Amino acid sequence: MKNMISRRSFLAAAGVVTAAGVLTACGGSSSTAASTSTAASAAGSTAASGDTIKVGVIGPLTGDVSVYGQAVVNGATLYLKQVNEKGGVNGKQLEIITMDEQGDATQAVTCFTKMCDQGITALVGDVTTTPTLAVVAESQDYNMPMVTASATAEAVTYDAETDTVYENVFRATFTDPFQGIKMADYAYQKLGYTKAAVIFKKGADYNEGLAENFVNEFEAQGGTIVDQESYSDGDVDYKTQLTTILGKAPETVFCPNYYQEVGQILSQAESIGLTVPFLGGDGWDGLEGYASNDQLTDTYFCANYAKGSNTDFEDAYKAEYGEEYPNGFSPLGYDAAMTIVYGIQAAEDAGLEAASDDYKQAVIDAIKGGTINGITGTFTFDEHNNPVKQTAILTYVDGKPVLKEMF
C-alpha cells in the first residue's frame, strides 16, 4: 500500500506481543530507549550461544499509520512464534527483534541499521511504501533478505528507470497495477461487461494507478471505456461526475478509492439514478456500514484475504491477541514471515552460519525459486520479486463482504 494516512482507517490491532523477542522504539523517548538498551544487550548474549536465529520485524507501531504496522507485526509475530512452538528451524529458535519506525522513513533506516548491528539474518518489513523504499536502499549494502507484507509500489522491488531488480527484496501483497488489471479481467471475462466508466481521486498514486491499469486492460480485452471522471482530495460532492457517467450509459463503474469516499459515491450515485454495479480494489476493505445493502448489490472488489478462508489462522490470532484479526494486513504479515522462514530453512539445511553473507544469499535464492503455501494463497515470485497468486474476489451479502471466488 502507498504511504498515505487516508488509505483506510482500520480498527486498531491488538498491542504487539513481544514475549518471543525484543521490542525497540527507534527515535522514541529517552525513557523508552533506556528501557530497551538492556533488552538489546540481552539479545546479543542470547544470539552468541548459536541456538537462535535473529529475525527483524519492523513497522509503525505508533503514529498515524500504526493501524497498519500493528496488524502486520502481530501477524508476522504470530507465525514466528508458532514456528518456535513447533521446535524452531532445525532445532534453533527464532529470536524476534521488533522495532517501531513510527511511520517515518529516517526512523525506519535507523531501526534497520540497529537490527543489522544486533545480527539479524532477515527482515519482515517495512509496512508502508515510503519507509520501505528507504530501507530497501539501505539494505543493498547488507544484501539483507527482506519481505514486505504490504508495500505495493512497484519501485519497492524494481527500479524501472534503470531496469534494476532489487534481488534481496520481496513482497507478500499484490501491486497496485496488478489490482487494476485483475478487476478489468474479472469485469470483462467473468461478469461479461463490455462498457465501463471510471471515477477516481486524482493526484493519488494508489487511485490513479488502479484506474490507469483498469482502463488499459479493459480496452485490451476488447471492452470500451465510455468515461473517465476524477475528483480532488477533500471533495465530498461527486454528483457532477456521476451525472456525466450516467449520461454515457456504462454497464459498470470502476471506483478504485477508499471506503469512506466509496460510501459517499455509492449514495450519491443512487440519488441521481446511477444504479449500475460498481467495482473496486482493496481500498474497499471496511466499506460495510458506509453503504446500504441496495447500494452494495452486485458490487465486487479484490483483496488479498477473505475473512473465513483460513479459520486456523483466525482462531490462532484471537487466542494470541484476545481479539479477531483487525484487517487484511495481519494475514499478509503472517505470509511475509512464512516467506522469510522458507528461506531460512534452506540456509539452515545448507549448514551455513546465520547472518553471514552466504547465509543471507541462500535465504534470497530459496525465496526466489520457492513456492509459498500461504494463507493469502499459494504463490511463487515473478522476475520483479512480486508474488504470482490468485486474488480473492469479494461481494456483499446482507451488507457484509463474502468471498465470491478466487480469480
UniProtKB/TrEMBL annotation:
InterPro entries: BCAA_transport, Leu-bd, Leu_Ile_Val-bd, Peripla_BP_I, TAT_signal
Keyword terms of this UniProt record: Amino-acid transport, Signal, Transport
Superkingdom of origin organism: Bacteria
Signal peptide annotation: 1-19
Entry annotated with the keyword Transport: yes
CDD domains membership: PBP1_ABC_LivK_ligand_binding-like
Leucine-binding protein domain residues: 52-398
Protein name, UniProt field: ABC transporter substrate-binding protein
